[in-house]
From TrEMBL:
Name of the protein: Phosphoenolpyruvate carboxykinase (ATP)
Keywords for this protein: ATP-binding, Cytoplasm, Decarboxylase, Gluconeogenesis, Kinase, Lyase, Manganese, Metal-binding, Nucleotide-binding, Pyruvate, Transferase
Binding site for ATP: 198, 217, 233-241, 282, 319, 438-439, 444
Compartments reported by the entry: Cytoplasm
Gene that encodes it: pckA
Organism: Devosia soli
GO molecular function: ATP binding; kinase activity; metal ion binding; phosphoenolpyruvate carboxykinase (ATP) activity
Note on how the cofactor is bound: Binds 1 Mn(2+) ion per subunit.
Primary localisation category: cytoplasm
InterPro entries, alphabetized: PEP_carboxykinase_ATP (IPR001272), PEP_carboxykinase_C (IPR013035), PEP_carboxykinase_N (IPR008210), PEPCK_ATP_CS (IPR015994)
Pathway linked to the protein: Carbohydrate biosynthesis; gluconeogenesis
Single GO BP term: gluconeogenesis
A Pfam family this chain is assigned to: PEPCK_ATP
Its EC number(s): 4.1.1.49
Length: 530
């Protein structure tokens, strides 16, 4: 689909609309959202909204058009398939549904590197969704020029349209449908704004590897010499918190590409979790929630219009969407050089993994493909112990290709860059959840700083007999006993039992990759469990 084809589609929707607001800025969108109802200003001027029944993504309602381009490339075990005819019918029905409505159009950029850039147009009947995506993507008038060669993308957002499974081939009345050949996205039946943001990332994840670019669900910042660091981690591991450092300019907090010229942000904003947010623990993010134009999703407000970040009565997945420029320290142009450090974050609720471990390139690929963290006990009825969570490449729901495609790209990037990879555990020590304690943030920050500034490059290490990685014996400013989790358990035999259990979970998860996954850490885990 050419730019002219996208222009025709966009024009068709505009001509059928009752009115069209093009590239409205924050004050205009805030006013329109409040006028439409369902949105209100907080005491400090952020826009508070609710997303209704959907307070998170609907991964099982996501579909990719199966055609000549995608049939042999997409990891169909991880993605629903839709026929081209069903997509076209859905497109026609959504277009008819939007006819006569007031629409908001935002023309934005995805990709700070002009060599790998998308010209994204979002059309929606919702002013606050238009503000959300304006905050999250790159605004063309803010220092990053749109390339004439940028790939056109059109996203049509119709939250009130209900799909018909019998007619459209969907699972439910909610649908997120992506046509990778034409770079069209249809979103319907959900008000959760994260679907818009992640659809852009899904398109990028499909196309970027063909250009030799590694797409990454990670945050990134810059050191004092301009060296980049990457932070991979699932929700709750500290990715956003640890990458927001006033002494290290932020490249971006969630979606990046790693190409021959270095790292670049796909976005122009941040989508931070706000549950239990405080000015003391996360001052930069807290301040952003008090900025005019920030969108607060599902955050409960008290009678004075102040956010109650500890209130999770709506959902624990409360969020703040704000443009990156409201942060005090950001990287110029949202780009950075070749990474020097790659950090894999995990919150191990089993109390097994050390707070910090040095990885070989092969081990880095293994942990990248595993994408491990653990949910704590007590979050669901009947759950009495931690539960392992594995998400390939730390972002399986957004990875249309087989994980090993991304794993191979990471291996190549590590080889070419010489970047050092680390595993940083922000979870429990001295026992699993309920018995041990969470590793304190001060120790985590000290360990991270030591890994980033090179002071551990030649440090003495011990060999972990189960996982095979190297664990520092001492880190200045950290109790050395903390670095050996086994010695922190009152019952070392109980630690051994729990450790072998975790090893087995890793092994079982890795089996799904089959022979395609080539990581030396896998055999070591297998040997350790026998």
């Amino acid at each position: 689909m050419t730019l002219d084809d996208h222009s025709t589609l966009r024009r068709t929707l505009a001509e059928a609309a009752a009115s069209l607001s093009e590239n409205a800025i924050a004050p205009q969108l805030v006013a329109a959202a409040i006028k439409a109802g369902g949105a209100q200003l907080t005491a400090h001027g952020a826009l508070s909204v609710e997303t209704g029944a959907f307070t998170g993504r609907s991964p099982k309602d996501k579909f990719i058009v199966r055609d000549g381009l995608t049939a042999e490339k997409v990891w169909w075990d991880n993605s629903g398939a839709m026929t081209p005819a069903a997509f076209d019918l859905l497109l026609a029905d959504i277009t008819a549904h939007l006819s006569g409505q007031n629409l908001f159009r935002q023309d934005l950029i995805a990709g700070a590197d002009p060599r790998h850039q998308y010209d994204v147009t979002v059309l929606t009947p919702s002013a606050w969704h238009a503000l959300f995506i304006r905050n999250l993507l790159i605004r063309p008038d803010e220092g990053i020029v749109k390339s004439e060669a940028a790939t056109p993308v059109t996203i049509i957002h119709a939250p009130l349209f209900l799909a018909d499974p019998a007619r459209h081939g969907t699972r439910t009345e909610t649908v997120i449908a992506l046509d990778m050949s034409r770079n069209l996205v249809l979103i319907a039946g959900t008000h959760y704004a994260g679907e818009i943001k992640k659809s852009v990332f899904s398109l990028f994840n499909f196309h970027a590897p063909r250009q030799g670019v590694l797409p990454m669900h990670c945050s990134a910042n810059l050191g004092p010499q301009g060296e980049a660091a990457l932070f991979f981690g699932l929700s709750g591991t500290g990715k956003t918190t640890l990458s927001n450092d006033p002494d290290r300019p932020l490249i971006g907090d969630d979606e990046h590409g790693w190409g021959d010229q270095g790292v670049f942000n796909l976005e122009g904003g941040c989508y931070a979790k706000t549950v239990k947010l405080s000015a003391e623990a996360e001052p930069e993010i807290f301040a952003a929630t008090r900025t005019f134009g920030t969108v607060l999703e599902n955050v409960v407000l008290n009678d004075n219009g102040m956010p109650a970040f500890d209130d999770v009565s709506r959902t624990e997945n409360t969020r703040a969407a704000y443009p990156i420029h409201v942060l005090p320290s950001v990287a110029k142009g949202s780009t950075g050089g070749t990474p020097k450090t790659v950090v894999f974050l995990t919150a191990d609720a089993f109390g097994v993994l050390p707070p910090l471990a040095k990885l070989t390139p092969e081990q880095a690929v293994y942990h990248f493909l595993s994408g491990y963290t653990a949910k704590v006990a007590g979050t669901e009825r009947g759950v009495t112990e931690p539960q392992a969570t594995f998400s390939a490449c730390f972002g399986a729901p957004f990875m249309p290709l087989h994980p090993t495609v991304y794993g191979d790209l990471l291996a190549e990037r590590l080889r070419m860059s010489g970047a050092q990879a680390w595993l940083l555990n922000t979870g429990w020590i001295g026992g699993g959840y309920g018995a041990g304690k969470r590793i304190d943030i001060a120790s985590t920050r000290r360990l991270l700083t030591a890994a980033l500034n090179g002071e551990l490059d030649d440090a003495s290490t011990r060999f972990d007999p189960l996982f095979g990685f190297a664990v520092p014996l001492a880190v200045n400013g950290v109790d050395s006993r903390l670095l050996d989790p086994r010695q922190c358990w009152a019952d070392t035999d109980a630690y051994d039992v729990q450790a072998l259990k975790l090893v087995e979970l890793f092994r079982n998860n890795f089996k799904k990759f089959g022979r395609q996954a080539d990581a030396d850490a896998g055999p070591r885990l297998a040997e350790a469990a026998e």
